[in-house]
């Protein structure tokens, strides 16, 4: 895990009524950034079946989903971490010479698999594809405890604002209170899950997936009163 604080905006210097009781203040904006290694992968995949007979399409789809779930369970993924996120039946038609002609039914069943073993994501995709999955919705990497990293980023943002205020005060030859009179949290990116493009449907080797790192950024605005 890596912590980083950086300047993102020049300070402004002026008078804040009701904030400094007649004394000038320095207003600054600070930013804190934390990078973290993902500890959770969420995989969306499933089966799309098209047939002219609805019951046949449903049966084939259900059989494939059952095989997929069994193969994923064999990778020691708990049942409660495998859930259906979409089940849909659509009717498809072709239009020929202005006429609507029935083409068939499409049954879609999508699963969402959550694993704390991020290195296992590729094996899960491969097992699913080998057992009938023909649609990979994508893979998202995230952290299971985002609040921890968000607090770290916020702390760095406040420290960054304090450093900037002291730098401005020193440059201007004035003295300020080191504790801000007011701190406002600005919009934060939080922990943004990192999506991964749909994996190849069939490979001769295990699908290589790289989780990389996530960035968590917090920003604050702070006011420091001149002594």
From TrEMBL:
Record GO biological process: DNA damage response
InterPro entries documented for this protein: 26kDa_periplasmic_antigen, SIMPL/DUF541
Pfam family name, one: SIMPL
Recorded superkingdom: Bacteria
Protein name: Secreted protein
